[in-house]
Known about the structure:
single chain, mainly beta, 7-stranded mixed β-sheet, 53% strand
Amino acid sequence: xxxxxxxxxxxxxxxxxxxxxxxxxxxxxxxxxxxxxxxxxxxxxxxxxxxxxxxxxxxxxxxxxxxxxxxxxxxxxxxxxxxxxxxxxxxxxxxxxxxxxxxxxxxxxxxxxxx
Length: 115
């Protein structure tokens, strides 16, 4: 079945870095756009980054200049490199894809930015 599994979250100090990974299975990964979405406590989900099947990327306002999305189609994995982390980046980070019309989400990975 179609599955997305995130990893790499944790506790990091302000100004630090983390790299999140999302392993995909059950579909032709290289053919699909991939997304990173986050949800902070008490807030709505927010799109952070996207990457097309062709490699085009978009980083949304809150993360511009600090986050990078990439993918390794040989490993069926999408990454989110996060630098210069701020306390307001604290959230659960989800990997997302729309596969054959079905909106698929991973279970999420917690990122906490705190001193």
